[in-house]
Amino acid sequence: MSEQKNIIILGSTGSIGVNTLKVIRGLGRNYRVVGLAARKNTDVLVRQICEFRPAIVALSDEARRGEFERKLSRCRVKMPRVLYGNDSLVDIAKVRGANFVVCAMVGAAGLLPTLAAIESGKDIALANKEVLVIAGSIIKRTAKKRGVNILPLDSEHSAIFQCLASADRKTVSRIILTASGGPFYNYSAEKMKNVSSKEALKHPTWRMGAKISVDSANLMNKGLETIEAHHLFNIGMEKIHILIHPQSVVHSMVEFIDGSVLAQMSSADMRIPIQYALTYPNRVVSGIKKLDLAEYGGLTFEKPDFEKFPCLKLAIRAGKRGGTLPAVLNAANEIAVRSFMAGRIGFSDIPVIIDSVMSGHSFLKNPALHDILETDRWARDKAEALC
User: Fold this and answer.
1) Predicted pLDDT of residue 2
2) How far is CA 284 from CA 27, 112, 276, 281, 316, in A?
3) pLDDT per residue as tens digits for the range 238-252
4) How far is CA 58 from the centre of its chain?
5) What is the DSSP code (8-state) at residue 302?
6) pLDDT in tens, 357-372
7) Do the beta carbons of residue 108 and residue 331 sit within 8 Å?
8) Residue 208's pLDDT is what?
9) Cβ contacts of 77 within 8 Å, gap of 6 or more
10) N or C terminus of the chain: which is more exposed, having fewer CB within 10 Å?
């Protein structure tokens, strides 16, 4: 019988958070939701509270406090303790009585809550890739010091984690990250200049939030995942390769020095890697549709076009340089994507903004946490001015 997991979900109203709760519904009594945290989606958050009855809740957008409390008052359950404001995310991550935190927030905003959860000794299921992108060394060092496990939630990193299993890392030749290619992979560079935010959100395989959908459309997401894999698995950036795989059946592969390649395959359903992280090291019945390879007829793979997708090239450059450069990349990208979604810049302007901010940065090789936070602030201001 598995140990009782008392779970806090940071980002419970987003795609990963919602899918995590779907998985928990089917796992039984050993998986208990004790805390939920969201930024502003009060409707979904209240529904989740009514169903899962957590002891504590955090809402970071304090301006929505009034509407949230009115909606919550209609919920006929014992009222949870509610925290408000940006600090509430850090506070809920540290709360006693929880031993497992699902980090499903988007962007650099997840850094301090994730670090707080690790410092308080809780195991982590990580979907918030930006946390490792901007502060991977600090996160890994703190997790090792506190004896905390970091389990990947992204389908690609879960695949790598499963393929590596108990393998000796010295026998790993390379990691192969797969990417669907997004909605624009077969577009010309000229055609991509005029795509709309609505088009960018139409991912051919996955249903995700706006920011990650845009990142997937210009392959920045795969660049961020490369940096994440570098930190998660202690593998050099030069050993991480990318293949475009439109069918999204092979979620990633590991090649070993003897020429063997192990791949993890499944239906494109985020509940599979989420459940594996929650139940690790066990596997349990999921009820999710099984993979039928005969349905696909064929699986294809090709190398990415770095010239047509410069965001991918920028991310790999930042990951190889390390230091504060990945924090600059991430901050500039968050601002550029937000500006694109608001109609202030075009799709092809995103990498131009990022490149400009990266080029103007005063690089630090071994940054402390305060250096990373200051770098993040500087890069956002710079990108905002350019947008």
Assistant:
1) 61
2) 8, 32, 8, 10, 36
3) 999 999 999 999 999
4) 20
5) B
6) 999 999 999 999 999 9
7) yes
8) 78
9) 49, 50, 53
10) N
Residue 28's region, left for phi above 0, alpha for psi from -120 to 50, else beta, is left
Distance between CA atoms of 109 and 301, rounded to whole angstroms? Answer: 34
| Sign of torsion over alpha carbons 69, 72, 76, 82 | negative
Q: How confident is the model at residue 166 (pLDDT cuts 50, 70, 90)?
A: confident
- Across all residues in the chain, what is the average pLDDT? 95
Type of residue found at 358: M
What is the spatial distance between Cα 18 and Cα 273, in angstroms, rounded to a whole number?
14
H/E element holding 380?
helix 369-386
Local confidence band at 287 (pLDDT 50, 70, 90 cut-offs): confident
Q: Which domains, ranges and CATH numbers included, belong to the chain?
A: 5-152 (3.40.50.720)
**Among 176, 191, 346, 354, residue whose Cα is nearest residue 262:** 176
Single-letter amino acid code for the residue at 350: I
State whether residue 87 is helix, strand or coil: helix
Bridge partners of 83, per DSSP, are 58
Half-sphere exposure of 208 (CA within 13 A, CB side): 26
Alpha carbons 381 and 387: distance in angstroms, whole number: 10
DSSP label at residue 205:
S
**Alpha-carbon distance 173 to 167, whole Å?**
12
Kindly report which listed range (76-80, 138-142, 150-154, 279-283) carries the lowest average pLDDT score: 76-80
